[in-house]
Amino acid sequence: MTIISTAATPMITVVIPAYNAEKTLLETLQSISNQTYDKLEILVVDDGSLDGTFALASDYGLTDHRVRVLRQPNGGVARARNHGIREALGAFVAPIDADDVWHPEKIERQLQALRKFPDGHGVAYNWYAAIDENGVIFGHSRPVMHEGNIFEPLLRENFIGNGSTPLMPRAEVLRCGGYDAGLRDSGAEGCEDLKLYLALAERLPFALVPDFLTGYRFTRGNMSSNAYRMLKSHALVMAPIIQRYPHLTRDIETAKFNTARWYFNRAIADRDYAQLKKLAPMMARQYSPQLVVHGMRLRFRQAKRHGIRIAKRLLGKSFARPDARLAAAALPQPGTAFSDRFITVGRVLSPTSPRMADNE
């Protein structure tokens, strides 16, 4: 069991599964090297890349000697993560995909959050900002406040939302079996992270860092953009949970509908007609009653907001400006770079900075 204190700071192993990631991997590595918590082991797992991923990671390791590069035949992100976790020396593992980025204080603040638990034994997570190919923010996760036993809330909504956010005890991840590579073998790759989080949530408390510390990149062609496969993956993950917890069936079915609706709305916003062509028949076939109820609720909310606006105009009241902060966190502003969220905190470190030189 890991003890987190000022006298004993744990080693953290960062695991980066990387497949043909030469375009984004450098930015990811720099965001890890720039962490204010520097007791890190950084494992890049090259998943049979065909581009310059292995050479780039190896060259970067000459600058930051905490970096170690592993190789395996292409087996998917779950196998790559599991390979890194098996090789890890750290008491905690922090996965990050090879196109995502972290705020410099991400690891440090997660460790601080875990101090609320006996011996620091738990899982830490934070909110994320959605970024595009250029690192520009276009949205963010819903800022939930779930802590402690989060199993049932996580069933209803995957509020962690990606594989690049949690800080997890390595021993507990191994006890849960790691990431399920069988989903990829079933043609349902995508929800391996959610399945692991649910398994951990049955065993451990979760701590929240209420800030947007992960830059989660959405690009066409990445795994999370394949809506139909993600929905199949979600259904496979939930099936055994329904068997174990039949009283939660209604909540899980609602979560399935909300997940499908989210991908459908995203496909509309992206004008992704190929996805819409697959999703529309499925939505109509499986969720016709839910769609009717959801549509009625939306119309009611729109009518209510419209009525409030009219009432305020008639009464001569001005609209209150929305608070741009939640708790102590500034809300991510669309159209701004994710790096702008922390560039004013202090000098952003470069691959040749003194912090990195100390680790050579």
From TrEMBL:
InterPro entries: Glyco_trans_2-like (IPR001173), Glycosyltransf_2 (IPR050834), Nucleotide-diphossugar_trans (IPR029044)
Glycosyltransferase 2-like domain boundaries: 13-147
Top-level taxon in the UniProt lineage: Bacteria
CDD domains referenced in this protein's UniProt entry, alphabetically: Glyco_tranf_GTA_type
Pfam families, sorted: Glycos_transf_2
Family annotation (Gene3D superfamilies): Spore Coat Polysaccharide Biosynthesis Protein SpsA, Chain A
PANTHER family registered for this protein in UniProt: GLYCOSYLTRANSFERASE, GLYCOSYLTRANSFERASE 2-LIKE DOMAIN-CONTAINING PROTEIN
Name under which the protein is recorded: Probable glycosyltransferase protein
Organism in which the protein naturally occurs: Rhizobium etli (strain ATCC 51251 / DSM 11541 / JCM 21823 / NBRC 15573 / CFN 42)
Phylogenetic classification of the source organism: Bacteria, Pseudomonadati, Pseudomonadota, Alphaproteobacteria, Hyphomicrobiales
